[in-house]
Amino acid sequence: MMLKDQVAVITGGARGIGKEIALRFAGEGARVVLYDLNPAQLEPTVAELRALGSQAEGLPVNVTDPAQVDDAVQKTLDKCGHIDILINNAGITKDGLLLRMDVAAWDAVINVNLRGTFLCTKAVSRLMLKQKRGRIVNIASIIGLIGNAGQANYAASKAGIIGLTKSVARELASRAITCNAIAPGFIQTDMTAMLPDEVKQAMLKQIPLGEFGTPADVADAALFLVSAASRYITGQVLVVDGGMVM
Question: Annotated catalytic sites, by residue?
């Protein structure tokens, strides 16, 4: 029970990687609070966590809206008393080649992925500074490290998250707050399931370990980065990609 009595906020926690992280943290004793835009997906995930014995909560939140984020953090504080862990996982894609990408597609991805991470980090870090403790983990992507054709907006948002992570790590370190990022490779989720088979096979050939990752692989990395085992690690990007970037 590595996270016993700790409160973990997970954005985009209703499905995919966020849900897997919630399940892993709950299994280690954490009280998880999920922020997600979709109430229809949020409710069954919270019910699943509670059925496993977790004190789970769910709040419908648009992470691009400062008022909604601040309200959700205050409600979490009122109910739980403290926030020890923040996982910035909420993210979207709107792919398209640069010359065909409209401003709306650019803004939507930057707003959710990067602005959302900024707003949630800003709101939660206020509490962590008072507590003089905390763990922040941002879900980036290997696309933020290497780029990808057709994903200029997504790559820019994830590269921005990596830069934000390092700056936040420097600003908050004196109060025993760490901030790190995870850069997943090709992870089997609902988002990647929509890709054509030929695209998946082409990607598989680029992975030295010869298989796609799972949300559990990312959850394992997140658990390490919020546990006592990572006490002396901050400002880092942990790549979870089966060697794809290599």
Answer: 154
